[in-house]
Amino acid sequence: MSHTAHIPSHRKPRRSAPKVTVLRAGVAGGVLSTIAVAGAAGPANAEPVTQTIEMPTLTSGLASDFAKSADATQRVANNLDLRAQESAAITKATKAAKTAHAEAERKAEAEKKKKAAAEARAKAAAEAERASRDAQRTTLAAADSGSNYSSGSSSGSSSSGSSTGTTAASAPTTSTATGSAAAVVAFVQSHVGDAYIMGSTGPNAWDCSGLVQAAYNQIGVNLPRVSQSQSTAGTQVSLSNLQPGDILYWGGAGSAYHTAIYIGDGQFVGAQNPSKGVVQASLDYDPPSGAVRVL
Protein backbone atom coordinates (compact mmCIF):
# COMPACT_ATOMS: atom_id res chain seq x y z
CA MET A 1 0.00 0.00 0.00
CA SER A 2 1.31 3.35 -0.86
CA HIS A 3 2.14 5.66 1.86
CA THR A 4 0.10 8.30 0.22
CA ALA A 5 -2.96 6.20 -0.24
CA HIS A 6 -4.91 7.60 2.66
CA ILE A 7 -3.58 11.07 2.57
CA PRO A 8 -6.35 13.32 1.47
CA SER A 9 -5.57 15.60 -1.48
CA HIS A 10 -5.43 19.28 -0.88
CA ARG A 11 -6.55 20.07 -4.36
CA LYS A 12 -10.02 21.49 -4.74
CA PRO A 13 -12.41 19.36 -6.64
CA ARG A 14 -12.75 20.33 -10.25
CA ARG A 15 -16.08 21.78 -11.05
CA SER A 16 -17.60 21.44 -14.39
CA ALA A 17 -17.52 24.69 -16.32
CA PRO A 18 -20.77 26.24 -17.38
CA LYS A 19 -21.63 25.84 -20.99
CA VAL A 20 -21.36 28.83 -23.15
CA THR A 21 -23.73 28.67 -26.05
CA VAL A 22 -22.48 30.19 -29.21
CA LEU A 23 -25.21 31.25 -31.47
CA ARG A 24 -24.39 31.43 -35.11
CA ALA A 25 -26.95 33.67 -36.70
CA GLY A 26 -27.15 34.05 -40.38
CA VAL A 27 -27.78 37.54 -41.63
CA ALA A 28 -29.49 38.28 -44.95
CA GLY A 29 -26.22 38.20 -46.84
CA GLY A 30 -24.98 34.99 -45.13
CA VAL A 31 -22.71 36.74 -42.59
CA LEU A 32 -22.19 34.72 -39.37
CA SER A 33 -21.85 36.26 -35.98
CA THR A 34 -21.17 34.45 -32.76
CA ILE A 35 -23.03 35.18 -29.58
CA ALA A 36 -21.69 33.81 -26.29
CA VAL A 37 -24.15 33.08 -23.58
CA ALA A 38 -22.73 32.38 -20.11
CA GLY A 39 -24.46 30.26 -17.49
CA ALA A 40 -26.04 31.95 -14.55
CA ALA A 41 -23.88 30.12 -12.06
CA GLY A 42 -20.17 29.48 -11.73
CA PRO A 43 -17.12 31.61 -11.24
CA ALA A 44 -16.11 34.09 -13.83
CA ASN A 45 -12.78 32.40 -14.40
CA ALA A 46 -14.32 29.02 -15.22
CA GLU A 47 -13.21 27.57 -18.50
CA PRO A 48 -15.98 28.16 -21.02
CA VAL A 49 -17.46 25.41 -23.06
CA THR A 50 -18.82 26.58 -26.39
CA GLN A 51 -21.64 25.20 -28.45
CA THR A 52 -22.58 26.55 -31.91
CA ILE A 53 -26.23 26.88 -32.92
CA GLU A 54 -27.18 27.65 -36.47
CA MET A 55 -29.88 30.41 -36.75
CA PRO A 56 -32.13 30.64 -39.79
CA THR A 57 -30.87 32.86 -42.58
CA LEU A 58 -32.93 35.83 -43.86
CA THR A 59 -33.70 34.72 -47.35
CA SER A 60 -34.49 36.73 -50.53
CA GLY A 61 -38.15 35.64 -50.19
CA LEU A 62 -38.58 37.87 -47.15
CA ALA A 63 -37.02 40.77 -49.01
CA SER A 64 -39.46 40.09 -51.85
CA ASP A 65 -42.37 40.27 -49.39
CA PHE A 66 -41.12 43.62 -48.18
CA ALA A 67 -40.93 44.86 -51.79
CA LYS A 68 -44.45 43.61 -52.53
CA SER A 69 -45.79 45.36 -49.44
CA ALA A 70 -44.12 48.59 -50.53
CA ASP A 71 -45.62 48.24 -54.03
CA ALA A 72 -49.08 47.63 -52.57
CA THR A 73 -48.76 50.71 -50.38
CA GLN A 74 -47.71 52.76 -53.41
CA ARG A 75 -50.66 51.48 -55.44
CA VAL A 76 -53.05 52.44 -52.66
CA ALA A 77 -51.52 55.90 -52.56
CA ASN A 78 -51.80 56.19 -56.34
CA ASN A 79 -55.45 55.10 -56.25
CA LEU A 80 -56.24 57.64 -53.57
CA ASP A 81 -54.54 60.37 -55.60
CA LEU A 82 -56.44 59.30 -58.75
CA ARG A 83 -59.76 59.36 -56.89
CA ALA A 84 -58.97 62.82 -55.57
CA GLN A 85 -58.23 64.02 -59.11
CA GLU A 86 -61.44 62.43 -60.43
CA SER A 87 -63.46 64.05 -57.67
CA ALA A 88 -61.95 67.44 -58.45
CA ALA A 89 -62.67 66.96 -62.17
CA ILE A 90 -66.30 66.00 -61.46
CA THR A 91 -66.75 69.05 -59.25
CA LYS A 92 -65.27 71.31 -61.92
CA ALA A 93 -67.41 69.77 -64.69
CA THR A 94 -70.55 70.11 -62.59
CA LYS A 95 -69.82 73.77 -61.94
CA ALA A 96 -69.15 74.38 -65.65
CA ALA A 97 -72.39 72.61 -66.60
CA LYS A 98 -74.40 74.76 -64.19
CA THR A 99 -72.79 77.90 -65.60
CA ALA A 100 -73.50 76.81 -69.19
CA HIS A 101 -77.11 75.97 -68.31
CA ALA A 102 -77.64 79.37 -66.71
CA GLU A 103 -76.12 81.09 -69.75
CA ALA A 104 -78.33 79.08 -72.12
CA GLU A 105 -81.43 80.02 -70.15
CA ARG A 106 -80.38 83.68 -70.20
CA LYS A 107 -79.89 83.60 -73.98
CA ALA A 108 -83.18 81.78 -74.52
CA GLU A 109 -85.01 84.39 -72.46
CA ALA A 110 -83.35 87.21 -74.38
CA GLU A 111 -84.24 85.55 -77.70
CA LYS A 112 -87.83 85.09 -76.52
CA LYS A 113 -88.10 88.78 -75.63
CA LYS A 114 -86.53 89.75 -78.97
CA LYS A 115 -89.00 87.57 -80.87
CA ALA A 116 -91.93 88.98 -78.91
CA ALA A 117 -90.79 92.53 -79.70
CA ALA A 118 -90.46 91.68 -83.42
CA GLU A 119 -93.93 90.16 -83.45
CA ALA A 120 -95.33 93.24 -81.72
CA ARG A 121 -93.72 95.51 -84.33
CA ALA A 122 -95.03 93.34 -87.18
CA LYS A 123 -98.50 93.39 -85.67
CA ALA A 124 -98.39 97.17 -85.29
CA ALA A 125 -97.24 97.55 -88.91
CA ALA A 126 -100.03 95.25 -90.11
CA GLU A 127 -102.60 97.20 -88.13
CA ALA A 128 -101.27 100.48 -89.57
CA GLU A 129 -101.47 99.05 -93.10
CA ARG A 130 -105.00 97.80 -92.43
CA ALA A 131 -106.01 101.21 -91.12
CA SER A 132 -104.55 102.85 -94.22
CA ARG A 133 -106.47 100.50 -96.51
CA ASP A 134 -109.66 101.09 -94.54
CA ALA A 135 -109.17 104.82 -94.97
CA GLN A 136 -108.70 104.34 -98.73
CA ARG A 137 -111.84 102.26 -98.95
CA THR A 138 -113.82 104.85 -97.00
CA THR A 139 -112.60 107.63 -99.29
CA LEU A 140 -113.44 105.66 -102.43
CA ALA A 141 -116.86 104.71 -101.09
CA ALA A 142 -117.60 108.34 -100.28
CA ALA A 143 -116.52 109.40 -103.77
CA ASP A 144 -118.64 106.70 -105.41
CA SER A 145 -121.70 107.59 -103.35
CA GLY A 146 -121.75 111.05 -104.93
CA SER A 147 -121.85 109.68 -108.47
CA ASN A 148 -124.45 107.74 -110.39
CA TYR A 149 -122.29 105.04 -111.93
CA SER A 150 -124.58 103.49 -114.54
CA SER A 151 -125.17 103.58 -118.24
CA GLY A 152 -128.49 105.31 -117.66
CA SER A 153 -127.04 108.20 -115.68
CA SER A 154 -126.15 110.40 -118.63
CA SER A 155 -127.85 113.74 -119.19
CA GLY A 156 -128.70 112.79 -122.75
CA SER A 157 -131.65 110.79 -124.07
CA SER A 158 -131.86 107.17 -123.03
CA SER A 159 -132.18 106.18 -126.66
CA SER A 160 -128.81 107.73 -127.48
CA GLY A 161 -126.96 105.21 -125.27
CA SER A 162 -124.33 107.75 -124.24
CA SER A 163 -122.98 107.82 -120.68
CA THR A 164 -120.19 109.18 -118.60
CA GLY A 165 -118.88 105.73 -117.84
CA THR A 166 -119.10 102.07 -118.70
CA THR A 167 -120.43 99.54 -116.20
CA ALA A 168 -118.87 96.15 -115.62
CA ALA A 169 -121.70 94.61 -117.66
CA SER A 170 -120.99 96.80 -120.70
CA ALA A 171 -118.76 95.68 -123.53
CA PRO A 172 -115.15 96.81 -122.95
CA THR A 173 -113.72 99.49 -125.20
CA THR A 174 -111.27 98.25 -127.83
CA SER A 175 -107.81 99.49 -126.92
CA THR A 176 -105.23 100.77 -129.37
CA ALA A 177 -102.36 99.51 -127.18
CA THR A 178 -99.59 97.37 -128.65
CA GLY A 179 -96.86 95.12 -127.28
CA SER A 180 -96.51 94.83 -123.53
CA ALA A 181 -99.00 97.63 -122.95
CA ALA A 182 -101.59 95.67 -124.90
CA ALA A 183 -100.99 92.65 -122.64
CA VAL A 184 -101.48 94.80 -119.53
CA VAL A 185 -104.71 96.26 -120.92
CA ALA A 186 -106.03 92.84 -121.96
CA PHE A 187 -105.31 91.46 -118.49
CA VAL A 188 -107.25 94.10 -116.56
CA GLN A 189 -110.14 94.06 -119.06
CA SER A 190 -110.42 90.28 -118.64
CA HIS A 191 -111.10 90.80 -114.92
CA VAL A 192 -113.83 93.42 -115.25
CA GLY A 193 -116.70 92.19 -113.08
CA ASP A 194 -114.46 90.46 -110.49
CA ALA A 195 -115.10 91.18 -106.82
CA TYR A 196 -113.27 93.77 -104.76
CA ILE A 197 -111.78 92.45 -101.50
CA MET A 198 -109.34 94.51 -99.48
CA GLY A 199 -105.89 92.90 -99.53
CA SER A 200 -106.78 90.37 -102.24
CA THR A 201 -104.47 89.69 -105.20
CA GLY A 202 -106.65 87.41 -107.35
CA PRO A 203 -107.33 85.33 -109.18
CA ASN A 204 -111.03 86.26 -108.95
CA ALA A 205 -110.99 89.03 -106.35
CA TRP A 206 -108.72 92.06 -106.07
CA ASP A 207 -108.03 95.33 -104.41
CA CYS A 208 -106.87 98.26 -106.55
CA SER A 209 -103.09 97.89 -106.19
CA GLY A 210 -103.33 94.09 -106.28
CA LEU A 211 -104.91 94.22 -109.76
CA VAL A 212 -102.33 96.71 -111.06
CA GLN A 213 -99.43 94.66 -109.68
CA ALA A 214 -100.77 91.42 -111.21
CA ALA A 215 -101.24 93.09 -114.63
CA TYR A 216 -97.58 94.04 -114.75
CA ASN A 217 -96.28 90.83 -113.16
CA GLN A 218 -97.66 88.77 -116.05
CA ILE A 219 -95.38 90.66 -118.47
CA GLY A 220 -92.37 90.29 -116.16
CA VAL A 221 -92.43 93.73 -114.49
CA ASN A 222 -92.35 93.69 -110.70
CA LEU A 223 -94.28 96.56 -109.16
CA PRO A 224 -94.62 97.51 -105.48
CA ARG A 225 -97.66 96.09 -103.72
CA VAL A 226 -99.34 99.24 -102.38
CA SER A 227 -100.81 102.31 -104.09
CA GLN A 228 -98.45 104.78 -102.41
CA SER A 229 -95.40 103.08 -103.93
CA GLN A 230 -97.02 102.39 -107.30
CA SER A 231 -97.71 106.11 -107.74
CA THR A 232 -93.93 106.70 -107.96
CA ALA A 233 -92.92 103.46 -109.68
CA GLY A 234 -92.36 105.05 -113.09
CA THR A 235 -91.99 108.39 -114.86
CA GLN A 236 -94.61 111.01 -114.04
CA VAL A 237 -96.69 111.90 -117.12
CA SER A 238 -99.34 114.51 -117.83
CA LEU A 239 -102.97 113.42 -117.84
CA SER A 240 -103.22 115.08 -121.26
CA ASN A 241 -100.49 112.79 -122.62
CA LEU A 242 -101.69 109.35 -121.41
CA GLN A 243 -100.91 106.11 -123.22
CA PRO A 244 -102.54 102.67 -122.76
CA GLY A 245 -100.87 100.82 -119.89
CA ASP A 246 -100.07 103.94 -117.85
CA ILE A 247 -100.79 103.70 -114.11
CA LEU A 248 -103.35 106.22 -112.87
CA TYR A 249 -103.36 107.27 -109.23
CA TRP A 250 -105.67 109.21 -106.95
CA GLY A 251 -104.12 111.32 -104.19
CA GLY A 252 -100.57 112.64 -104.10
CA ALA A 253 -97.55 110.98 -105.72
CA GLY A 254 -96.09 108.81 -102.97
CA SER A 255 -99.24 109.11 -100.86
CA ALA A 256 -101.86 107.83 -103.31
CA TYR A 257 -104.85 105.92 -101.93
CA HIS A 258 -106.03 104.35 -105.22
CA THR A 259 -104.56 103.16 -108.55
CA ALA A 260 -105.90 101.84 -111.86
CA ILE A 261 -104.78 101.15 -115.45
CA TYR A 262 -105.45 103.51 -118.35
CA ILE A 263 -106.62 101.46 -121.36
CA GLY A 264 -107.00 104.25 -123.94
CA ASP A 265 -109.91 106.17 -125.44
CA GLY A 266 -110.39 108.05 -122.15
CA GLN A 267 -111.13 104.85 -120.21
CA PHE A 268 -109.54 103.06 -117.26
CA VAL A 269 -110.00 99.72 -115.49
CA GLY A 270 -109.65 99.47 -111.76
CA ALA A 271 -110.81 97.59 -108.68
CA GLN A 272 -112.97 100.34 -107.25
CA ASN A 273 -114.59 99.25 -103.96
CA PRO A 274 -116.61 96.39 -102.42
CA SER A 275 -119.88 97.66 -103.90
CA LYS A 276 -118.57 98.11 -107.47
CA GLY A 277 -115.83 95.49 -107.83
CA VAL A 278 -113.53 95.68 -110.89
CA VAL A 279 -114.96 98.17 -113.39
CA GLN A 280 -114.15 99.94 -116.63
CA ALA A 281 -115.03 103.62 -116.47
CA SER A 282 -114.43 107.00 -118.07
CA LEU A 283 -111.83 109.38 -116.73
CA ASP A 284 -114.66 111.91 -116.46
CA TYR A 285 -116.41 109.63 -113.99
CA ASP A 286 -113.56 109.86 -111.50
CA PRO A 287 -110.68 112.08 -112.67
CA PRO A 288 -107.30 110.80 -111.40
CA SER A 289 -104.73 113.01 -109.70
CA GLY A 290 -101.79 111.91 -111.82
CA ALA A 291 -100.16 109.11 -113.78
CA VAL A 292 -96.84 107.27 -114.14
CA ARG A 293 -95.46 105.44 -117.16
CA VAL A 294 -93.60 102.16 -116.58
CA LEU A 295 -93.39 100.83 -120.16
Describe the protein.
The protein has 295 residues and is of the alpha+beta class. The chain folds into three domains: 42 residues, no CATH class; 64 residues; 115 residues, endopeptidase domain like (from Nostoc punctiforme) (endopeptidase fold (from Nostoc punctiforme)). 38% of the residues lie in helices and 19% in strands. The protein contains four helices and eleven strands. A six-stranded antiparallel beta sheet has the order 6-11-7-8-9-10, sandwiched between helices. Strands 2-1-3 form a three-stranded mixed beta sheet, with no helix packed on it. Strands 4-5 form a two-stranded parallel ribbon. Helix 2 packs across helix 3. The relative contact order is 0.10. About 18% of the residues have low confidence.
